[in-house]
Design goal:
Layout: H1 2-11, E1 18-22, H2 28-37, E2 42-46, H3 53-56, E3 64-69, H4 72-86, E4 93-95, E5 102-103, H5 108-112, H6 119-137, E6 143-144, H7 153-156, H8 165-172, E7 179-183, E8 189-193, H9 196-201, H10 227-236, H11 259-266
Parallel strand pairs: 1-2, 2-3, 3-4, 4-6
Antiparallel strand pairs: 5-8, 7-8
């Protein structure tokens, strides 16, 4: 709630303030309800299928709901369930392809053969999937990946990003060969910068001395590391113990900029 309030103050009434909440979280419901109460403009939800999201977000609230999908199958499952059970549909859909950073909705085999994947066709199939529900609910369902874009990695190397300088330079110094697919305790593959932390995991598990109870299906006795601890360590600049998620094109980021300059570059101003 504190961060949503701060973001809205910074936005000065412009744009949308959204929250990305993983389905894999142990306290997913509580996070969603708190975000709605805090006045989030949209809840974007992935790392699993957000089948019950409409139940947690009252249609009378101004908070919009948007699932993250990587395939037509996932999009159709979610939209069909939302329509049948809640008589609701998505306010927009976010497509995360095989080159995205962080958790990925693909198998390791698919990612290994990524260059031969015809993902443009999959995007078209996802867009076509929304048409049925646009007709049913008499509303356009924008698809990020077509109607708009979701950009994450590029905004890390900006002056406004609150990550540590070490985290930002991990991006700036990374080449294509420094990026690899890892197995996340969430149960999904993830894309990250290969650093001391990842090299260490290849030799032995990292002992977990404290459980943050963050993931629904995480067993501290069996997982190789605590993802919450690793992500926080990275943002604070502890690269030896930190996990640095990134997109496949992180090697193209070679200079620090500002959000204003980056937005001008992205829209061709």
């Amino acid at each position: 709630k504190k961060h949503i309030k701060k973001a809205k103050e910074l936005a000065c009434g412009h744009g949308m303030v959204g929250v990305n909440i993983m389905v894999a979280l142990k306290h997913y419901k509580e996070h969603v309800l708190a975000a709605v109460e805090a006045g989030a403009d949209v809840i974007i939800s992935g790392a699993g299928l957000p089948m019950e999201l409409p139940e947690l977000v009252d249609e009378k609230s101004h908070t919009r709901i948007a699932p993250i999908v990587s395939s037509k199958r996932a999009a159709n499952l979610i939209l069909k369930m939302w329509a049948h059970r809640y008589n609701r549909t998505a306010d927009f859909i976010v497509i995360e392809g095989p080159k995205a950073g962080g958790h990925l909705g693909f198998s390791n085999e698919q990612l290994a053969d990524m260059e031969h994947m015809d993902y443009d066709s999959e995007i078209k199939e996802i867009i076509n999937c929304t048409k049925t529900y646009e007709e049913k609910f008499k509303k356009h369902i924008p698809v990020l990946g077509a109607d708009g874009v979701q950009v994450a990695s590029r905004f890390v190397a900006t002056e406004e990003c609150d990550a540590s300088d070490a985290y930002k330079h991990a991006y700036l110094n990374a080449n294509e060969s420094d990026v690899q697919i890892i197995q996340s305790p969430v149960g999904m593959p993830g894309r990250a910068v290969r650093n001391e932390f990842i090299r260490g995991l290849e030799k032995k598990k990292q002992p977990i001395t404290k459980c943050y109870n963050c993931l629904e299906k995480c067993n501290p006795a069996t997982v190789p590391y605590c993802i919450t601890k690793a992500l926080i360590a990275a943002v604070k600049g502890d690269m030896q113990n930190g996990l640095v998620f990134c997109g496949a094109n992180v090697g193209r980021i070679n200079r620090m900029t500002t959000v204003h300059e980056l937005m001008s570059e992205l829209v061709g101003a």
